[in-house]
Every structure is written in structure tokens, then in C-alpha cells.
Design brief:
globular, binds 3-hydroxybutanoyl-coenzyme A, single chain
Length: 306
């Protein structure tokens, strides 16, 4: 026998309306939203590190200003998403603790090194491009604060993707050394970008329930395919080769066929054994510790205002 509250929850989902913080929700729904939004927020904050690594070494003032703006945006996305998570009754200090103690995840993609400035362009083009594919549907996620946060974040991700593509176009019109630098970065970031969409649907324990609760609007494989179909023509415009010999248009499917991902690599990176996992978490831990005095001063100031 379902209660009135459960019926209201179900009816709200059926009508594609939003669940708001004040509404009753199943505990499993709340836990799923905390997990997904918090890990998304962690990803934004950790994601500042790979590109931030190049701010002091950008080749021109213009590139430095663009990169500064982008990294600052990621910080804002993280804070936005931590605020959305807090509407579910959790505290961001606890979420940070869960991140730095490895009890919560962040996106695998940020555990790879940024070896040249071309990586900054490829991250904008591929990583933010993948983020847009994954996050535009989340603007229709059933949890109100998350869906609304996504609308603003997706607008800024579009700027990120365009600035990355423009940077690469500039380099591809440059010297052979610059063109080689771009191709090397594409070779290193293509497959990890496809892994951003998560494990195959058959190995995705959360997808079925998240789709039923209209948290996720498409499966991992559907969005991965959408990203490949969108990106292959862009690679042609850029003049780069995507590192997949099995990549080809399938007229019957009206999609690109592509090769098998290295799911062992994915599992290794997600479980903490990627190229930069230890460095990324140590850096986040250090930043948190270094900022303790600011938090204490702000709390003391707030107490004096009461
Ligand atoms: N990296 C790390 N962990 C991953 C992962 C990845 N790329 N893909 C999946 N996982 C984890 C999941 O979190 C889950 O573990 P958990 O139960 O402990 O949380 C497990 O692998 C199984 O995966 P599922 O497919 O069952 O999990 P989900 O249904 O949560 O789907 C997801 C995974 C597609 C990433 C989904 O959580 C999602 O869409 N999240 C919101 C978007 C997001 O977080 N994007 C991160 C990219 S960073 C970014 O966009 C910043 C931009 O500036 C580039």
C-alpha cells in the first residue's frame, strides 16, 4: 500500500516535474542524488588541477586570461554543486572529507597528466565536449536544484569547449611541431574521454534505478555514442586523427562504430591507480589544510556578527 507521500513523489516524476528539497523523497533517491551531485562537484574541483598546471606557462597573455577564466569557472561549478548537495541535508565539510579520504569518487578523466599546452586545448575540446553531452540531459534531471545548476554550468561548458577547439585550430595552422603536439594530445586524451561516460550499460549498477527516477535521462552507452558521433566530424575539421582503427560510419546504424575501450584501465583509474590519482588527492588535501585558518577566521567573524 503506497502512502500519499509516495504517490505524490511518483506522480511528480510521471508528470516530468521537479522534486524539491522540501518534498518527501525515498531515502534511496536522496542517497543517489547526494552520491551523484557530490561526485560531480568533486570532479569540478579536482578538474582545476590538470589545467591549472599551465596557467603560469601559458604562451600569451590572452591564453593565460582564457585559461584563468576557465579554471575559475570550474571552481564555481564545484561550489554551485556542493550547494545543491547541501539541500539534501549533507555538509560540504563532510563531503570534502569523504573526497580526500577516498570514500567518494571524482571523474576518472582528471587522473591523467597534462604534458603540453596542447592538452589545454584538447581538454577543452574533448573533456568539456564530453561533459556537455553528459550534462545537457541533466538539465532535465528530476531533482530541482541539480537540474537548475546544470543550466548555468552547461552554458559555461559550451564556452570551455569552444575555446579549446579555437586553441587547437590555431595550433593546427601553426608549425609542424605544433600540429604534432596537438595529435599527441589527442592520442592521449581520446579514450579516457570516452571513459568519462561510465562503464558499459551492462556493468552500470546505478543506471536502471537512476533512469527510473529520471535522474539520468540517457544511459552511459547512449551518451558515449552521441559524443563520438558529434566529435568525429570535428576531428576532420581540425585535421587530427582519432586513435581508433575501428572508427567508421555505419550507414545501417546511422552512427559511428568504434573500438572497445580498455575497461581494465578504467577500473584501475577509478579504484585509485591511475597516473595522477595520488597527486590529485594529495594536492586537494594540502589545499584544504592550508585553508583551515581562512575557514576558522570566517567562522569567528560570523559568530561576532550574531
Ligand atoms: N570516473 C569515476 N567514477 C566513475 C566514472 C568515471 N568516469 N563513471 C562511473 N563511475 C563510477 C560511478 O560513480 C559508480 O560508482 P559509485 O556507485 O561508487 O558512485 C560506478 O562507477 C558505476 O557507474 P554507474 O554508471 O553505475 O554510475 P552512475 O549511474 O552514477 O553513472 C556517471 C556515472 C555517468 C558519471 C553519472 O554519475 C553522471 O552523469 N554524473 C554527473 C556528471 C559528472 O559527474 N561528470 C563528471 C565529469 S567532470 C566535469 O564534467 C567537469 C567539466 O568541467 C569537464
Amino acid at each position: 500500500m503506497t502512502t500519499d507521500l509516495e504517490q505524490h513523489f511518483e506522480r511528480t516524476l510521471e508528470k516530468d516535474q521537479r522534486i524539491e528539497p522540501r518534498d518527501w523523497m525515498p531515502e534511496g533517491y536522496r542517497k543517489t542524488m547526494v552520491r551523484q551531485i557530490a561526485q560531480h562537484a568533486h570532479s569540478e574541483i579536482i578538474g582545476m588541477q590538470p589545467e591549472g598546471n599551465w596557467i603560469t606557462r601559458a604562451p600569451s597573455l590572452r591564453r593565460k586570461a582564457i585559461l584563468l577564466a576557465k579554471v575559475q569557472d570550474e571552481a564555481g561549478h564545484g561550489l554551485y554543486l556542493y550547494s545543491a548537495t547541501e539541500t539534501l541535508g549533507v555538509d560540504r565539510a563532510d563531503l570534502t572529507e569523504r573526497l580526500i579520504t577516498g570514500r567518494q569518487k571524482y571523474s576518472s578523466i582528471f587522473n591523467y597528466p597534462t604534458l603540453t599546452f596542447a592538452d589545454v586545448g584538447v581538454i577543452g575540446w574533448l573533456v568539456d565536449g564530453a561533459a556537455i553531452c553528459n550534462q545537457v540531459p541533466l538539465c532535465r534531471s528530476s531533482y530541482g536544484p541539480y537540474a537548475r545548476a546544470m543550466i548555468r554550468i552547461c552554458k559555461e561548458e559550451s564556452f570551455h569547449q569552444r575555446q579549446g577547439f579555437e586553441l587547437l585550430m590555431t595550433m593546427m595552422k601553426g608549425t609542424q611541431a605544433q600540429r604534432d603536439m596537438v595529435q599527441d594530445a589527442v592520442d592521449r586524451w581520446w579514450w579516457p574521454s570516452l571513459m568519462m561516460f561510465g562503464p558499459p550499460d551492462a556493468d552500470s549498477p546505478n543506471s536502471a534505478q537512476s533512469m527510473a527516477w529520471k535522474i539520468k535521462r540517457h544511459t552511459n552507452d547512449e551518451l558515449r555514442q552521441r559524443f563520438v558521433d558529434m566529435t568525429v566530424p570535428q576531428a576532420g575539421v581540425l585535421g587530427v586523427t582519432l586513435p581508433d582503427p575501428d572508427l567508421r560510419w555505419n550507414e545501417a546504424r546511422e552512427h559511428y562504430d568504434f573500438g572497445e575501450l580498455d575497461w581494465d584501465e578504467f577500473k584501475q583509474v577509478v579504484s585509485g591507480n591511475g597516473p595522477c590519482n595520488a597527486e590529485r588527492v594529495a594536492h586537494r588535501r594540502q589545499a584544504h589544510e592550508d585553508g583551515a585558518w581562512v575557514r576558522e577566521a570566517a567562522a569567528a567573524h560570523a559568530r561576532r556578527q550574531k
